[in-house]
Amino acid sequence: MSLVIYNTLSREKEAFAPLDAGHVRLYVCGPTVYDYVHIGNARPVVVFDTLYRLLKRTYPRVTYVRNITDIDDRIIVRAADNGESIEALTNRTADAYQSDMRRLGALAPDVEPRATQYVAEMIGMIQRLVDNGHAYAADGHVLFSVPSMDDYGRLSRRSRDELIAGARVEVAPYKKDPADFVLWKPSTDAQPGWASPWSRGRPGWHIECSAMSARHLGETFDIHAGGLDLIFPHHENEIAQSRSAFGHPFMATYWMHNGFLNISGEKMSKSLGNFFTVHELLDQFPGEAIRLLLLSAHYRQPLDFTHEGLTQAKATLDRWYGALRGKDARPSSVVPQSVEDALNDDLNTPQAITAIHQLADPAELRAGANALGLLQQDAEAWFRWTPADSSGPSEADIDAAIAARQAARKAKDFKESDRIRDDLKAKGVILEDGPKGTTWKRG
Ligand code: AMP
Ligand code: ZN
Fold first, then answer.
1. What is the pLDDT of residue 392?
2. Which of 44, 126, 355, 392 has a Cα at 20 to 30 A from 204?
3. pTM given for the model
């Protein structure tokens, strides 16, 4: 079975046919870096990392671009609140993001462009839009002229009234049409700004992704992805900008959107305050457990976040790693067909997980789980994981106790060796004696 993708543009599942079968190109909208990301923000990262892995297995070359938005009014405000420079804030936050996503098993994208490095490209693109009549300058701003594009709104399928209401447009005297959106805006002296033909200012959010995707993937490319909330206005406006600037009938051929991670039925979001950061959850659960939870529902379905769900995901991984323990379980060279078929069907990860449960052979289990970015570590390392606030003995303490017990057994002091074992058990560490020596896990 070959890859089928649900395309938001057509609202249908379509066979995936890359523009160039020798080089598949994927763009995923990344975070705005002003604070730790929450686990909802990690859903697109983990989902589209799973897609990236699948594409890499299927095609000879894949370029995956995931941007970092380091120009944004929330960044300006937060840096001022913290009393630090914008650069210090965005560098620190971007580093934390990359490290947290790595701990969720996400591969680094091929390119991770930061918006501040592409302002010249954005100005160039805005100039093209002004020159060809799709944008106009007013009061130091540049606006995209929505009426200049016949089929604006195709992705989100909104009526003109909905577009205007949804754009949540501030009444601005310089706008010719209420649906027009900002490509460039002036900065005050206190705000970061770049010289441009229109004002010392800064780019709007949407133009960042149009410029960075064009620079690294070309004027048209295969897949553009992100969360459901990006369909409108962000992706609609990216399409308007890129198509109008370059004159192609499409920007990307496939548009993929993940559903929301909810908490008690409500979208997890910073503004509602109902969020857990990935950073704090990684103190309490292994990254792979968080990843498995995020893949346990189909990516287009809502997924309710609970700590109970994370505990269950960890228990599943305990079982899988348990099956690999003490075995030579290098992954088989090909992903088991049942897992690959599920993933090829619009990334049906719950089906893939069901298929993994049925794999009895350790090498196949490892290969099937690897396709989802799971079972990436040594089984012993998995069982040695401890929560950050654990009051139990450290790894070094445990290793020392095992060595002492070994010595006692060698000296046939079984009373002492049993005492050491029982003492560890009381502290939540379970020893298992096997043919290759003693292994341990936290119980
Ligand atoms: P933002 O920094 O708000 O632009 O979000 C970064 C990415 O996370 C975007 O792809 C959003 O669509 C996605 N996202 C934000 N909140 C959630 C959520 N609760 N569930 C799933 N995805 C989300
Ligand atoms: Zn974007």
1. 80
2. 44
3. 0.91
